[in-house]
Amino acid sequence: MRTTSELLLIADQRRPRTQQKDIGVSDLGSCRRRVGYKLAGAEPVNPSGNIQAVIGSAIHDMVAQIMEKVAEPGDLVEHEVRFAGILGHLDRFEASTGTVVDTKTTGSRWLEHIKLHGPEHAHLWQVSVYAAALVTMGYDAKRVRIEYLARDTGEEYLWPGPDGAPLNPRNVRDAMEWLQQVRDTSLDMLPRDYDPDSVFCLGCPFGGPDGGICWEGHVPERDRRSVLYLDDPNAQKWADELFDLRKQIKDLQDKEKRAKGALDAIRPEMGGHVRCGNKTIDFRRNPKDPTKFSLYFVAGGES
Question: Distance between CA atoms of 187 and 40, rounded to whole angstroms?
Fold first, then answer.
């Protein structure tokens, strides 16, 4: 018997994109170690993938099916492109506005982070490289838009808005410089940009539940991150780093407490939203202790 998740992962493993061994546009800005393995031609050791990626792939497939019926003349859907020799498949190109659209699925908590701080650089690089690839092919691609969809709530967020943003060549240059730095660095010197128990590592072709080839060599029966010490066996350095980080955390906690205490002066009696310059703060009563309030920044409340 196979479970639903197992069947979904098997289906995802058979997709051409999953089987692609060369680096793709979606790798830009991701884990440098993972890209290094791909560039070195390392054989994958973890075929499992992850359910989050399967859900994202399913949404892309469904949108593509619908777009085949509603696409306007000149629109492109799930279109293959190449830029600087890197293969990619853009989600959509709206010919009428010259906008390249990239869809990303995420969790609702991370979506709130995106609303406040904007997309992560990898997402900006990917959609910008897709647009740059179309430009080299003669298309009038001049704008980009990222559409985020929360898996758990269904909420949709369009960055920077329905009209998109002008294509910024700086994002393309940054992506190419990042890739060149990875190419110029020996594999054993490339950092592991995610933790071994993260969703990214667990679904990585070179990672997985046992750490794969990326985290192999760690101290037996110890944290897989112990391999970092074996790579750089300088106990003083690691102890200093931990000491400094804990001090920074304590200092930041003290500063946070100070700022929250100062802002309590403008808290409405029953809580609620308060405009603070170009930001909006939401004072929420603590359900466990009604005399205390938590402060949250309102997504979209910046100007």
Answer: 8
Among residues 283, 288, 278, the alpha carbon closest in space to that of 261 is found at 283
β 143-150/99-106 pair status: parallel
Does residue 141 have a pLDDT over 90? yes
In this prediction, residue 51 has a pLDDT band, given cuts at 50, 70 and 90, of low
Cα angle for residues 291, 295, 297 (degrees, 5° grid): 160
pTM: 0.80
How far CA 97 is from CA of 92, 105, 141, 163, 185, in Å, comes to 12, 24, 8, 8, 40
Measure the CA–CA gap between 71 and 146, rounded to whole angstroms.
18
| Burial status of residue 51 (CB atoms within 10 A of its CB: 0-12, 13-18, 19 or more) | middle
Token pair listed for 257: 């407490």
The domains located in the chain, with CATH, are 4-189 (3.90.320), 267-303 (no CATH)
- What pLDDT, on the 0 to 100 scale, is given for residue 289? 87
End-to-end CA distance of the chain: 54
99 φ/ψ angles, rounded to the nearest 5 degrees: -105, 130
List C-alpha distances in Å: 252 to 199, 247, 258, 294: 28, 9, 10, 17
DSSP states along 165-185: EE--HHHHHHHHHHHHHHHHS
Alpha helix (H) ranges present in 71-212? 108-117, 121-136, 169-184, 199-202
**24: β partners:** 87
Neighbours of 45 (CB within 10 A): 17
DSSP helix/strand/coil, 277: coil
For residues 26 and 58, the model is more confident at 26
